[in-house]
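ZP: hey, is the zinc ion complex queued? I don't see it on the tracker
AM: it wasn't, my bad. submitting now with these inputs:
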Amino acid sequence: MTLTHMREWLMAKTTSIGKTKHSPQRMCIGCRTMKDRKELIRVVKTKDGGIFLDESGNGQGRGAYLCCDLDCMKRVEKTRGLDRTFKMTVPIEVYEALRNEMEEIACKTK
Ligand SMILES: [Zn+2]
């Protein structure tokens, strides 16, 4: 277990205190609303620096969560929210690719 994983694990543990019966809550990095993890889309950054939507939610790497909502994606793009989450400069092309992917997924669910 890496330090990052450890920190995430601890954070997940802390936030679940008091509502043990519920699914884990995660914050959307677009609108900053706490939601059930199942309602959010995970964006994952792999060890080799690739960033993509993780539809299964089981991808290895550091994760960020987003509502399945294009408005949230656009907000993240505007504020460069992923740069902060992943502590790196995320190329604008990556944001665009994620938005396109999100567009497809959002269409599927509606
Ligand atoms: Zn959101």
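AM: back. The first strand starts at residue 25 and ends at 27.
ZP: great, adding it to the tracker
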